[in-house]
Amino acid sequence: QVVCSPAGFEQVLAYSRFNPPDAGFGAGALLAILERWSQSFDFTVIEACHDSIVLQLDTEPPDRRALAAEICELCPDVVDYFLEDAPSGTSPEEAVIRRIKDLGDIELWWD
């Protein structure tokens, strides 16, 4: 388990050797996203490896729907997984919002 503050994002991504083959971006792009998110809400990185990261929410995101839309674009693999457990007819954004609300975390991974 890896836990860090916003000042440690770069070190965590380097230590975990974050470089998912199917994401279409690398650690630098994810670092920018994490830093931007940290300006809006508080979270702790609780897990990180070469192709995934899990954030435990310490405060509520101000706009869950906008965050969910960004997660859907950023990480379609995890959205497909969340939809498997959602009721029929649930939109991708609603599945992500439900996950954030129910578990209080943001899980991102790329195959």
Structure description:
- This protein has 111 residues and is of the alpha+beta class.
- 46% of the residues lie in helices and 16% in strands.
- It contains 5 helices and 3 strands.
- A 3-stranded antiparallel sheet has the order 1-2-3.
- The longest helix has 12 residues, at 27-38.
- The chain is globular and about 40 Å long.
- The relative contact order is 0.17.
- The mean pLDDT is 85.
Concise overview:
By secondary structure, this protein is α+β, with helices and mostly antiparallel strands. It is 46% helix and 16% strand. It has a 3-stranded antiparallel β-sheet with strand order 1-2-3.
Write a concise keyword list for the protein shown above.
111 residues, alpha+beta, three-stranded antiparallel β-sheet
Radius of gyration over alpha carbons? 13 Å
Structural shape: globular
Order of helices and strands: HHEEHHHE
| Beta-strand residue percentage | 15-25%
- How many extended strands? 3
**How many helices does DSSP assign?**
5
Order of strands, main sheet, comes to: 1-2-3
Mean pLDDT: 85
Proportion of helical residues: 40-55%
Structural class label: alpha+beta
**Distance between the amino and carboxyl termini:** 20 Å
What is the strand and helix layout of this fold?
Elements: H1 9-15, H2 27-38, E1 43-49, E2 52-57, H3 64-74, H4 76-84, H5 92-103, E3 105-109
Antiparallel strand pairs: 1-2, 2-3
